[in-house]
Amino acid sequence: DVIVRKEKKRWVVSINHAIYPRIRVNQQYAEYFRQARDGEMALLAQHLQEARWLVRNLEQRFLTIQRVAEAVVARQKNFFEYGDLAMRPLTLREIADELGLHESTVSRATSHKYMATPRGVVAFKRFFSRQLATTSGGSCSATAIRALLREFIAAEDRRNPLSDVQLTELLADRGVKVARRTVTKYRRSMQLPAVDFRRA
Length: 200
Fold this sequence. Notes:
By secondary structure, the chain is an alpha+beta fold. Helices cover 54% and strands 13% of the residues. It contains nine helices and six strands. The strands form two sheets. A four-stranded mixed sheet has the order 2-1-3-4. Strands 5-6 form a two-stranded antiparallel sheet. α1 (27-35) packs antiparallel against α2, α4 crosses α5 (103-110) and α7 (164-173) crosses α8 (180-189). The longest helix is centred in the N-terminal third of the chain and has 38 residues, at 38-75.
């Protein structure tokens, strides 16, 4: 739906024009409406007005998607630079407040929408990640924690893989407080098998 690229050290967002509907009111028909006799005029004028509203609503929809995408990219700039580990916690409400929109409007603007980025095609919803506390008093996104877990498991000794308890301890060493059951839930969501099935 949108394309994100880096131009002169700035991340730029643009609507993918391949999916942008090219709809406009045919001026020839609009002229016929204007020339219609009085009896036909009211009905034709109503149809013309509805056509113009449709075009305006589509323009507004894509403008909202563009604004939301720009706000998300500005907030998640580190993700575009460094990847999942740098994803910060973000809520729909934060974007809604920043843009002066209702939270449900932001939800609709991001639902089933995707960004083409240098890091691949990413669902808008992926940028909205819940916040988890760190021991330093800061916060970390669930996406960043999943990336850390993937990293730990990729580097483990296949003869002695890491249990979920050990993964929880490794996260704690990095300053991230999460329960063992949360680690299990994240590991399963990434379709990574349990310790016994990872043993070589």
